[in-house]
Fold this protein.
Amino acid sequence: MSKDFPMKLNRIAAGLGLSVSLLSASSVWAVQMSDDNFGLDVKITAQSEDDRDLGTRDGGDINGIGLDLRPWVYGERGDWSAFALGQAVTATDIVETDTLQASDTDSQSSQRNDARVADKSYLALREFWVDYSGFTAYPGEHLRFGRQRMRSDEGTWWDTNIEALRWSFDTTLLRANVGVAERFSEYRTDLDELAPEDQDRRHLFGDIATQWQPGHWVGLKAHHSRDDGDLANPGEPLDELSKRYTGDLTWLGINADGDFFNHRSRMPLNYWAQATWLSGNTEQLEQTLIGDQRFASGSRNQDVNAWALDLGLRWNIDEQWRVGGAYARGSGGGDDDQSEQFMQTGLESNRSNFTGTNARLHRFGEAFRGELSNLQVATAFTSWQLRDDYDASLVYHRFWRVDDNQDIGESGIIAPLQAGEKEVGQELDLVVTKYFKQGLLPAAMSEHLDERSALVRFRGGVFKPGAAYGSGTDALMHRAFVDFIWRF
């Protein structure tokens, strides 16, 4: 590790000290730990990735294996509980053992900032929080404070670890969340700074859903972000830590859910429909390119008025086989005006189990990993599940730009797009899982950890670029993983 590793470790220790102090602030934490109150997740990940730059730059390949150890501890007494989850990673390359890993920590820009360069080995704190569930008599109500996992079922609004104060209400007929969140640190020894979109950005969020008949839900979501950061002054050089915009943005969404993300659903048809509106105002950075270096040239105010649509339908043929399709569209700029270009909340992962299995897949391709901004995606899939022992999903995606003169936001591909072409490309994904020892963990821990059992999983995608990437790019790009997970 680097020579300043002790200093970085101190910052992580300080965060751990905060979590420990929260636990020890009251005699309520005088709880005896049993075997079910602590454990260790072991994850071994092998990764093969070929040219995310589509051959437009040197390098771009990843071939390596990583070991990811995640110790956790959980305590509960009366209406109070607490949880902490650490992480220690070592690998032969910059291997992605964490599906929530930020995309900018391993990119290969020519203007890299060392504060955001991921190391092969690092320590991290993923979660540390305290929870109180005594405000009402409902068993699904609780107030949680600290760094915690925020996740919506579809993954396109929220799916991240972030410092938050969140009140949740979860009963048979009603689910609701409301809270405030802001990221203050990555809590990793290898990352000294936050991503620019997280610096000085506060989030207010809430959602409510009601079950109007068994398996059928309707809901509302709302999210407001306020970015008080500063843009670079004219003439200043730009890098990956330079903010591209500041301002206030508000998302409002309405959805209907027919058990689309419930892999145990026995309904013959599962459906999902969501419409989202984005409004607000931003100050956008203007920049100019001199040689290989970008410089700030000023800024401009911009009102934002955009929308997105996400639809899905799945037919459960029998207990083993399912087929379905999905469509998503995030509005584009139009006439070189970005005020109508949709963007997501910045807290999303875009991962969910939309194919009807227990395995969570990227909604916009395991290789492409698109963001719903100036993008439309048509998806077809089939899945197979054998009891609780095996499942598999085969997914086909096709991607287009809405406005062929605008960018498409962040994705797993870093090659430049060509003006005047809409077809971004197509992709085929395969995810296959073998599960072992179902129910190894106590039921109370299922909320905090992605998987309930030990498993071996292959997940991979092959992306074929379209005309929007030009004729000089590679014909195919792939990204593939083999994960082995065991929980003690």
